[in-house]
Give the backbone structure.
Amino acid sequence: MNIEHGFPIFGEPQEAAVKQIINARDTGARVALMADHHVGYGVPIGGVAAWPEHISPMGVGYDIACGNKAVLLDAPAQKVKASIHKIMEDIVKKVSFGVGRKNNESVDHELFDDALWAELDVLKAAKERARSQLGTVGGGNHYVDVFVDEQERVWVGVHFGSRGLGHAIATEYKRLSEVSEAGIGLLSIHSTAGQDYLAAMELAGRYAYAGRDWVCQAAAKIIGGKIIDEVHNHHNFAWREEHGGEQLWVVRKGATPAFPGQRGFVGSSMAEDSVILEGIDSAQATAALRSTVHGAGRVMGRKAALGDRKRGIIGQVSERAMLRSVQEAGVVLKGGGVDESMHVYKRLPDVLAAHSESVRVLHRLKPIGVAMAGPDVKDPYKD
């Protein structure tokens, strides 16, 4: 843990991301930077910023309530492994991947009965699109994975957020934010806009939970297993919490809550193990504002990985290299692109080692099937 700048930085510091979190600190926030950090929009991915009386829509990000859910199934691993090609084919038929996609079937949910939809203009405009997108996964690094753990138990893991709903809310309240000299947009929690944003954010959080629930249930049905345990967390969200005797609005952007005993599902790349972990009590955990990584963290941007044929720029990762990595790992891949290959990510064991005093790994999940949007998908609803 590096405290050179007066706040904890975990892992190898990325200069541009450090500069972004310093900008947040300069608005009066308590901050920390997780080991999977990299540059984001305004506030870095892997950044935690906490204000007593303010909230930052820019800090939460465009994909409000993006998060991970993992479910443990009672399905026999040997049978699932033998059928994994068919299972993954059925998952991509059932679940809609990609930008702006609508669910292949109508999914209703009690959250659409909430009166808030009729009270805020941004929600009125977004409601029908949100209804049609509930349970869709999107593009980028969003996925549906099938795993087997060290006890030969089957898990399903998913990663996505509130889709177009979150993007619409973030866009509206970013516009209403007061931008600091450091370039960070803030809303007072005592203002009408601040209260409305918190209410809309909470609704987007319930929406994201409902979507991940639906996808996990759908995958479990395809596999033929009953869900017997689940681990579910947002990592683009804000919570009212007490830290050091002070009540704060803690904004985690690409960071997983990790209070003592709280479990989290942290995904890795398409060819490497993910984990179920839990927070432990320590001085490091206190410094991290009870937060940890949400994934392995990028080391290569999408443009660098993909290249640009029109401009004659060769991508740094080839499709052949990506496919070789998943084949060697024994993973059945549906969709995905070189900009999501394992080559563009840090190694998850390395970033977890930087947090070894604040979290412990409970289970290691080996991927056997990975489903993502195809390489041609551009998704504006991710962050």
In short: The two ends are 26 Å apart (CA to CA).
